[in-house]
Amino acid sequence: MASHTREEVVNSMPRTGFFGHPKGLFTLMVTEFWERFSYYGMKAILVYYLYYSVKDGGFGLPDALAMQIVSIYGALIYMSGVIGGWLADRFIGTRKSILFGAVLIMIGHILLSLPNNFTLLLAALLFIILGTGLLKPNISTNVGELYHKNDPKVDSAFTLFVMSINLGAFISPLFVGWLQENVGFHAGFMVAAIGMFFGLVVYILRAKPTLGLSGLDIPNPVTPEEKKKTMTTVGIIIAVVAIYFIATAAMGTLSLKSFMNLVSIVGIILPFFYFITMLLSKKATSDEKARVIAYIPLFFAAVAFWSIQEQGSTVLATFADKNTQLNLHTLTNGAIDFKIPAAWFQSLNPLFIVTLAPLFAWMWVKLGRFNPPTVVKFSIALFLAAFSYLVMVYPLTHGGHLMNPIWLVLSYLLVTMAELCISPVGLSTTTKLAPQAFTSQMMSIWFLANTVAQIVNAKLVDYYDSVEKYQYFNNIGLVTLGLGVILLLVSPFMKKFMRGIH
Ligand code: GLU
Ligand code: ASP
Fold first, then answer.
1. Ligand 2 within 6 A of 416 CB?
2. Measured distance CA(17)–CA(92) in Å, rounded
3. Residue-wise burial string across 209-228, b where 16 or more C-beta atoms lie within 10 A, e elsewhere
4. Ligand 2 centre from 163 Cα, in Å?
């Protein structure tokens, strides 16, 4: 068990210095700002890097394959968080995980800033996946570790933390996108690497003086007996993966596609494995198990929502580049002579999050007893996500060859409003519905909803590629709308299973 009590940890650091919060919060916010700056900056141009022709600095892959790679990359980012959380919890603690993670991420971005080479690209993505898995879940855990268990400041700490995430995500596509258009892809990736470097420097300089003992203990260290069992299990997993690679290589089918299929199968099995473990476990009471069952429809709703949200950097990013009028000269009848970098659309979601989050927080409080219960908020989120696609149908069926970008802005606005209904509530409901013995596993399941969503997206892009654009947005929008209605219909039954939580 951890060798310091929460009391000792909390008292080991400067308690004030940042808007009434411990100075450590600022350290973690700045580090995460730069990490997200690098992550979303790079992601804003990744799909273009993959499908742009070699002449234009890319790899010239087919659009659908490019979008599939970005989706599977995104799925792996959240899957590796499961490993990162486990490593911190049982082997190295959060402090070291964050440090190693930041280094790996920076190496990944540096590799991307080197001249084009497909193997190098895959290696770079692997570094970023492993690094993000180590850093992302653990930096959020570390924020929690700065406070006493029931400190009311925790909520405002996380609100500030989410703001820093989205500020990073907002600013970087502006820089990276401009550089990509005006200098080249590698300059854009270099900026992402420099961003992570800044984050790393801040973390190294400020961790000791501001984070005290937090993140140094290993919360649930492996016992010697467990070590043996764990090593055997890890060994078996590595062996199975290795055999898979050797076998497919021998059959000559070891391709990116088969690897992506493997990731998809594992990514879909994983959350259900967790669900079944919890439902069969003796460590969970029958009330707790009922709550897990109530969580399953919410999980599917989260998958549907994240599917559309994450398509913002694949399908909509491609749409922005290929089917949208980005030339302001044409849009303003010659008044402004500027071409909007397509990657700039990636700044819209985080911009709307930063500006609208306070409004939503205020609105839920203001609604008082009319504040909708969790399930209804999830349904509203699905309706808004559905509308974010349905609004694209009209301009696509009534406009010219290139769509006015204002429709795309509206689409991002709607999906961000959906995010504000589902994301904060989803996180807190996950903790509330979690059986006591499985809190961290339940959090992993929440992030795995994003993984499953991106696995679904990797398949949906084939559909996007094969039908008319308006049909795609119309049909996906209608299906999502239908899912929202189903969720509303089952909500009375879910209420029973929630056993007092709402
Ligand atoms: N966009 C947020 C982030 O990067 C949240 C993503 C999620 O919860 O899946 O931290
Ligand atoms: N809204 C996302 C998150 O909260 C950021 C993004 O998609 O750009 O970090």
1. no
2. 28
3. ebbbbbbbbbeebeeeeeee
4. 10
Torsion over CA of 191, 194, 195 and 196, rounded to 10 degrees? 130
pLDDT at res. 254? 66
CB 278 within 8 A of CB 289: yes
Distance from the alpha carbon of residue 78 to the mean position of ligand 1, in angstroms: 9
In percent, the amount of the chain with pLDDT more than 90 equals 78
Q: Report the CATH number that the domain containing residue 300 is assigned in CATH.
A: 1.20.1250.20
Other C-beta atoms lying within 10 Å of the C-beta of residue 172: 29
- The number of the ligand 2 atom at minimal distance from the alpha carbon of 40 is 8
Name the closest ligand to CA 312: 2
Residue 1 has pLDDT above 60, yes or no: no
Residue 319 resides in a domain: yes
CA–CA separation, 108 vs 193, rounded Å? Answer: 8
Nearest CA to ligand 2 atom 3: 166
Residue with more model confidence, 472 or 368: 472
Q: How many domains does the chain have?
A: 2
Q: Which of 190-204, 252-266, 271-285, 396-410 has the highest mean pLDDT?
A: 190-204
